[in-house]
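I am writing to request your help with a piece of structural work I have in hand. The matter concerns a single protein, recorded as an amino acid sequence and a row of backbone structure tokens. Could you please explain, in whatever detail you think fit, how the structure tokens follow from the sequence? Thank you for your consideration; the sequence and its tokens are set out here:
>
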Amino acid sequence: MATVTKKELIDRIAAATGETRVVVKKITQSFLDNIMLELGAGSRLEFRDFGVFEIKQRAARMAQNPKTLKPVPVPPKRTVKFKPGRLMIQAVGGNSEGKAGTPTESPSSAI
């Protein structure tokens, strides 16, 4: 499995759109910054067919130190949950069929 960096994505988008790397990088970074800002504020972000980002509160619990076997309190914390959308599931091979009676879209045609 290959790792794709933000730089590589920016290069791909710049090549596909004909925009300069500088412009694509500013837009991409602004997009990512706004996602983090909204999640930090507790907002739910929904991108149709791509997926939903939301904040979940994890309750405080007792864990165990594996070395000493002593109980250790773990404080409550907020974490990000991502639920993939229909096209995301299809793109990663989780579901090869769309809704009954509707043609499936490719991820690039939904943009």
